[in-house]
User: Fold this.
Amino acid sequence: MNQAAEELFVKQLQENQNIIHKICRLYTSDEDSHKDLFQEITIQLWKAFPNFRGDSKFTTWAYRVGLNTAITLYRKKKRTIDTIEFDNTYHRVKQEDYNFEEEEQLKLLYSAVNELNDIEKALVFLYLEDKDYAEISETLGISEVNARVKMNRVKGKLKKILNP
Assistant:
């Protein structure tokens, strides 16, 4: 890889590293696992960057590589990556904006999401990130229709979990 491509990769990674952190929070439960997964995703992005043609946005591509890496590691007998527990997450809420009821609802939602399989978690994650179905389908490598159908099924699953 030439120096210009290297500099472009570093710049894009620095500007979009929050994507990787969000994925790590979704698939890990402690700081060490988070750091390990962050490093692994970064390595996979670096390895794949020469093949990045720019057909999609860098963020879409980073979501795809990051989620695939996390899911692959998660499936490999959960090596050192555990599903995130809600109590281990840190919320950055301004004190004056704190809403106990909202916090309880978030806790219930995270608990319900933890009962989903890894692909369903990725789908919910992208949906909650306000990605449209076109970008979700591109990121997950499925058709847009399939993304919509899966999301409707996941919504139904979450409703059953939250309202047994």
